[in-house]
Amino acid sequence: MSSITQGRLRAAFARRLSEMYGREVPAYRTLVEVSHEVNLDVLRRAGAGAERLGSIGRVTAERHGAIRVGTPGELRQVARIFGAMGMRPVGFYDLRDTASSAVPVVSTAFRPVTEDELAVNPFRVFTSMLTPGDPRFFDAGLRGRLEAFLSARRLFPPELLELAAEAEAEGGLPEERAERFLRLAVEAFALSAEPIDRAWYEELERVSAVAADIGGVASTHINHLTPRVLDIDELYRRMTGRGITMIDAIQGPPRWAGPDVLLRQTSFRALAEPRVLREPDGTVTTGSLRVRFGEVEARGIALTRDGRRLYDDLMSRADHLARETVPAGSSVSGGSSAGGSSVSGGSPAGAGRGEAARRDAVARSLWEREFPASERDLAVRRMGFFTYHAVEDRPRDGRPPVADLAALLDAGWLRAEPIVYEDFLPRSAAGIFQSNLSGEGVKDDSLTGAGYDLGLLSEAIGREVLDPFALYEAQQERSLRQAARALGLPAV
Ligand code: OOG
Ligand code: NI
Predict the structure, then answer these.
(1) Band of residue 464 on the pLDDT scale cut at 50, 70, 90
(2) Is pLDDT of 161 > 80?
(3) Which cofactors are reported in the record for this sequence (predicted)?
């Protein structure tokens, strides 16, 4: 009996989820269509250079999804389902404290971690877990009712979890069971037609729209699926040209002439979707809820801890400078964004499009002064991650290689291939959450939040949450050791 590997399960799952989401949210289909057009245009324009950060085959199929669950138990089940598809929890994101938004969740991302598995299909899912125990958001009474509601629901059928355990243990599933697994897994993330208790939903919504989306319904659903695009500025223009209102800003690094690093993302609010509501008097009506949306992203080179520190520093300095250079007469809304509840609102500071453009210009000039301007500089300053390859057919000039990275690169002994950033950015994630919330929510900052970190999240999941930096570093170091050996050098 032929077996479907975890990698093939993952690729099939991503494809089917995308088909389902396209049926549920038509604007997503437009987004995928426009992304493909842009990618083909970039390929025509830039040729092979367009594929430096991933083959066009990979990029065309590439998606990330986002889901939200309510309890550690649910998170453990999700981990098992993704584990069946070779996806491990990587990274810890705390979205409760970000300046621009306060969302009562902590998150990780499930994704493949080896080069081979990433090459099969890089599908990743940003996964958030509600924190009902955080007193800044939930008082004791609401917490009790919320936890009772969550513990009474069942998100995943036992058959799905059993198939997942088998796939994880065996490295895949025989064809028929693979089919069954995929069907159940995709179904588990479809938008449910079960009636929603309106009063309960609205009570949670007053605290946080995300709390209502998670704990106000008895099921879970995919919140968005994000295609990858090679030129996100061009995509932004084309979507706007098609009459789709994008959020004000592209989150992440500014557009500039230097290397693409990390992640740039932007999004639009999907239309409200019809949902069945149960009124307090027991009658059932059709209302509408607006929780799902479209997002698109461009991925660049993974940064080392040093590179990331510089990135974070430049981002906060750009914010600062942009605030200082506001033209007279214009008002800036501070942390609490009036735009948060409007369709067009949504950059991290709730700024308008003009302010977003100004901030981008400020950021760009900072980057041009301080960020490594080439892949070589990123490599030599040890700010970006690369795999290094010994160049066997280098023209010989009689001089032996020396064990120094810059010298080896400059003399052509080593070739550096960028490692693509496979993870997320907390600040961008907060911006994505915030831009799509329908209300401000409430948070009492006079109280102290329940502490959460990577270790505690690992305990909650019952699996080690991996450190993304360590993964990139191990890959880079392996390649360096191999290259050094090939050149007959000690460690580089
Ligand atoms: C997740 C938001 C974060 C991203 O791409 O940064 C995210 C959510 O809305 O559930 O998806
Ligand atoms: Ni996303």
Answers:
(1) very high
(2) yes
(3) Fe(2+)
147 in Cβ contact with 73 (< 8 Å): no
- Coil, helix or strand for 246? strand
- Residue in 102, 107, 202, 213 with CA at minimum distance from that of residue 444: 102
Q: Ligand 2: distance of its center to the CA of 107 in Å?
A: 12
Residue-wise pLDDT for 283-321, tens only, equals: 999 988 887 888 999 999 999 999 999 999 999 999 898
Angle between helices 72-83 and 158-170 (to 10 degrees): 50
Q: Is the minimum distance from the CB of 432 to ligand 1 under 6 angstroms?
A: yes
Q: Which residue segments constitute the domains of the chain, with CATH numbers given?
A: 3-384+419-461 (3.10.180.80), 385-418+467-492 (no CATH)
Q: Is 429 a pocket residue for ligand 1 (Cβ < 6 Å)? A: yes
Among protein residues, the one with the nearest Cα to ligand 1's atom 5 is 429
Please provide residue 78's backbone torsions phi and psi, each rounded to the nearest 5 degrees.
-60, -40
Lowest-pLDDT range, 62-71, 176-185, 441-450? 441-450
Secondary structure of residue 3 in the 3-state scheme: strand
pLDDT over threshold 90, residue 338? no
- Residue 357's pLDDT band, with cuts at 50, 70 and 90, is confident
Ligand 1 atom with the smallest distance to the CA of 67 is 10
The CA distance from 304 to 474, in Å, is 12
Residue 50: DSSP 8-state: G
- Ligand 1: which residue has its CA nearest to atom 4? 429
Ligand 2 centre to CA of 276 (Å) is: 26
Of 125, 221, 295, 297, which is best to mutate to test ligand 1, by the most ligand atoms within 8 angstroms of its C-beta? 295
Cite the DSSP H helix spans in 84-208: 115-120, 140-152, 158-170, 175-188, 198-207
277, β-bridge pairs: 196, 285
Q: Is the pTM of this model over 0.80?
A: yes
Protein residue with least CA distance to atom 9, ligand 1 = 433
User: How many CB atoms sit inside 10 A of residue 417's CB?
Assistant: 13
In angstroms, rounded to a whole number, what is the distance separating the alpha carbons of residues 454 and 423? Answer: 15
pLDDT value of position 307: 98
What would the pLDDT profile of 60-98 be if each residue is shown by its tens digit? 999 999 999 999 999 999 999 999 999 999 999 998 876
Pick the residue whose CA is nearest to atom 3 on ligand 1.
429
Give residue 260 CA to ligand 1 midpoint distance, Å: 21
* Residue of 433, 434, 437, 438 to mutate, ligand 1, most atoms within 8 A of C-beta: 433
| Cross-strand partners of 90 | 109, 466
Q: Whose CA is nearest to atom 11 of ligand 1?
A: 66
Q: For residue 252, which of 312, 302, 317 has the smallest C-alpha distance?
A: 312
Q: Which ligand is nearest to the CA of 294?
A: 2
Distances 164 to 70, 113, 199, 368 between C-alpha atoms, Å: 20, 19, 36, 48
Q: How far is ligand 2, taken at its centre, from the CA of residue 393, in Å?
A: 43
